[in-house]
Structures are given as C-alpha cells and as structure tokens.
Amino acid sequence: MNHFKQPHTISNPYFFMMKKTTFLFLLFFFLFQKNAEAQQRFKAGIIVGLNAAQVEGDDSAGYNKLGLHGGLRVVTVLRDKMDFVIEMLYSQRGSFHKGGPFGQGDLEINLRYVEIPLLVTYKDWYQEEEDYYKVQAIGGFSYGRLFDATAIGSLHDAEVGNFHKNDYSFTIGADFFATKHFALGARWNRSLNLLYNNEKHMKGLDPLYGYFISFRGMYIF
Question: Which of 46, 54, 89, 163 has the fewest CB within 10 Å, making it most exposed?
C-alpha cells in the first residue's frame, strides 16, 4: 500500500484576521501623516520577499522549501539609533525534499501563516548629507497563526490537522539601506514551540520544529 501520494489538508478562515490587521496597519499609517511631529517619530513601509524554509524532524534536510513573504511594517523611532518595529506578514513555510530520503517520491509540507514580528533595531553608518543610516541589526520575537497546512508524501500527511495553530519564534537579521527609502535584508527565524507534538498524537513520528530564512526588499515611506 502506498502511503506517500495522497495530500491531506486543513484550512481555517483566518483571512478575515489578515484583512482586519491590514486595515489597522493602513489606518495607523494614515494617522501618522496628520502632523509633522508624527512623521518624524513614526514611519511605515512595504515588504516583499522570499522564504527558504525547512522542518527539523521530517526526514529531510536543507532550506529547500521556497515561499512568499511580504506585508506591512510600522516603525517607531525610540532614539537616534534605535527603532521599535511591528510587522504584519503573509509567510509561506514548510519543507521540501525531491525524491524523498528513501526514494518514495517528493516529500512536501506546506504551511501558511499570518505572522506578526515585534522587533528592535540598532542602526549605524550614518549618511549625513541624506540623513539616514546605511545598516541596521534586528532582533526580536514573532507570533505566527497557521491558517492553512498541507502535506504530500510525508509521514505527517494524515497529521496536519494536529499541527499547532500558534507559532512562537525568535528572529535575528540585518538590513542594508541603498537609499533613505529602499533596503535589502535577511532574517533567520526559529520556532520556540513544536509545529507538531508526537507525544500527543502519533508517537512513532518525530516532533517537528520550524526554521526559515527570509530575503526581503523594503520600501520605507
């Protein structure tokens, strides 16, 4: 009997939450534009990027799962070199192994999240003429809400309904500003809690932890 072909899926109506959060971010941004003081203290931006993800415990290795990564950010200036950042992102994660580790066909886990990182940045390399910093280091924590999961060819294909809906993770990274408004950056992200708890469900499977690297471009208004 072949256990590695039929995909199983869960789908939850969290798009409403995504739309509501997007609306709040946009409202927040437009309120910032009402006076000059707010424009100096608050900034907003758009993020577009790509995730390279993997899952520890799924019998495959490497950051082989590619997915979209993007959304909105709001920046609060704390002091000259430090900012506090909140982002609202759509994030595709999971894992992929072509051919499978035992030649049984492609193995793939697809995970889709609404992700809200809370970050602190430290900036350096000041450009006096244009009044901005070239580089910034980033660190913080992120909350992700799983709203869709599928698995194809994986031993976890029948267990995606038991994947944790809430993901708590920490992230570190850096951004390079080519201009005052445009930056390129990279982040490394690791989940703090299990994606799948084998002790509560199928004990013959390994527990799963998620990792991913994000490569992104940002435009700051």
Answer: 46
